[in-house]
Design brief:
Blueprint lengths: L1 H22 L5 E2 L2 E2 L3 H4 L17 E6 L4 E6 L11 E6 L10 E3 L17 H8 L4 E6 L2 E9 L5 H6 L3 E9 L2 E8 L4
Parallel strand pairs: 3-6
Antiparallel strand pairs: 1-2, 3-4, 4-5, 5-10, 7-8, 8-9, 9-10
Length: 187
């Protein structure tokens, strides 16, 4: 009987640790702008008006003060006004052709609430977000770290936002973070 109780306790404890580690990867903001939060977006769009780009999903592009980074906020069908479901931050390369809606002159770099920013190494990102992830090698020198949180019944953070899933993708080129995205996948 003691052995059975020990095994059940161990399984529950290991499951708890795995779930806790997964939810540690949850990010919800960039530069003080929060996922699914109209109030924080009104700082950029005080009148609530913006022109969404239709290419690759409805979104708006914002650049940093140095014009070296682009922050894109993606709107999913069914989202409330100024409530965005997916955030993407990437280097603004010479081949970036999409229109920029505005520039945040007080932002040198787009940084998440947990301190993720372009230029970090894989080790630094994993140290911040935790160890339960998948690594995909896209091409030589390019690796993607993927985090996924599924199951609203298992994770408080998903219950809070009333969504079934959260993802995070961190793209590294030669061990340098060049793009990251996170949020709630559009259905």
């Amino acid at each position: 009987m003691k052995k059975k109780v020990f095994v059940v306790t161990l399984v529950v404890l290991v499951s708890f640790l795995l779930l806790a580690d997964t939810s540690k990867a949850f990010e919800n903001s960039v530069a003080g702008i929060f996922l699914d939060d109209a109030k924080s977006m009104k700082r950029i769009f005080p009148d609530g008006k913006m022109k969404l780009i239709e290419k690759n999903g409805y979104h708006v592009n914002i650049e940093n003060k140095k014009q070296t980074e682009v922050f894109s906020a993606f709107f999913c069908e069914g989202d409330a006004t100024l409530c965005f479901s997916i955030f993407v931050v990437k280097e603004k390369l010479n081949n970036f052709k999409e229109p920029i809606f505005t520039q945040l002159k007080n932002i040198d770099n787009f940084v998440t609430a947990k301190g993720i920013k372009l230029g970090l190494s894989k080790v630094e990102v994993i140290k911040i977000l935790g160890g339960k992830f998948e690594i995909v090698e896209k091409e030589k020198g390019v690796k993607i770290i993927k985090y996924n949180i599924k199951g609203k019944e298992k994770f408080e953070v998903l219950k809070k936002y009333n969504v079934p899933e959260y993802f995070g993708e961190y793209i590294f080129k030669n061990d340098k973070l060049v793009e990251f995205s996170f949020g709630f996948p559009c259905e």
